[in-house]
Amino acid sequence: MSHRFYFDDFEAGALDHDYHWLDDHEAGQIVGGRLRIIAGPGQDLWGGLPIKRGAPVLLRQAPAGDYELRCEVYAGFGGPGTRQYINTQVGLFVFQDFQNWLFFGFTYHAGQAGNLPDGDGLIVTSVLGDVATIAFYGEFPNDNARLRIARSGNGWSFFYKFDWNRSWQSLGKVSARLRTHNVGMGVKSFTAGGGAGRGYFDNFEIRVP
């Protein structure tokens, strides 16, 4: 049985002072009890050489040892004709440094995601050393979900559910030796033209054994 190590429902109207922004310090705002993060065109984060950076990611220190990271992630706000801009990713980050991190969240991609079909879905990417990999991808029509990352030693498991009352579904597991690191929420927008990417986050939670 795990217990709650940290919880933020973003109802306080201001961010906890233990958070810090990666690169962009003006991208986040609490709106209607949710954290909104906006990434401008080309505010990306990726591995390999040259390293891409500039994405707004809100981070805090992760606990030592095993833990779970949970959050409600909302992407594609706005209704018909105003959905998320193409080549935007919205979700959770486990971040050691610019060459060692994991991402789990929504992707809206077309023409820039390797051999993935154009479309929307959930994706896990890993950047370890100079190797950047799309670890898992699942095509889904949903644009919001409760996401969960579970760390057990050097194993990182990724779960989701679209119905809060249903059981967790697994997307996969990645092995990664990450040293002291941070966890949090963020948005990447890896198209140089077009509009900004955006995401909303709620009930951000860290649980430990």
CATH architecture: Sandwich
**Beta-strand share of residues:** over 45%
Radius of gyration: 16 Å
Unreliable runs, pLDDT <50, ≥5 residues? none
By CATH reckoning, the class would read: Mainly Beta
List the helices and strands and how they pair.
Elements: E1 3-8, E2 20-22, E3 28-31, E4 34-39, E5 57-61, E6 67-74, E7 88-97, E8 100-109, E9 119-128, E10 131-139, E11 144-152, E12 155-161, E13 169-175, E14 182-189, E15 197-208
Antiparallel strand pairs: 1-15, 2-5, 3-4, 4-15, 5-14, 6-11, 6-15, 7-8, 7-14, 8-9, 9-10, 11-12, 12-13
Structure description:
The protein is mostly beta strands and 209 residues long. It has a single domain (3-208), classed as Jelly Rolls (Sandwich), CATH 2.60.120. Helix content is 0%, strand content 55%. The chain contains no helices and 15 strands. The chain has strands at 3-8, 20-22, 28-31, 34-39, 57-61, 67-74, 88-97, 100-109, 119-128, 131-139, 144-152, 155-161, 169-175, 182-189, 197-208. Strands 1, 3, 4, 6, 11, 12, 13 and 15 form an eight-stranded antiparallel beta sheet that branches. A seven-stranded antiparallel beta sheet has the order 2-5-14-7-8-9-10, with no helix packed on it. The chain is globular and about 45 Å long. The mean pLDDT is 89.
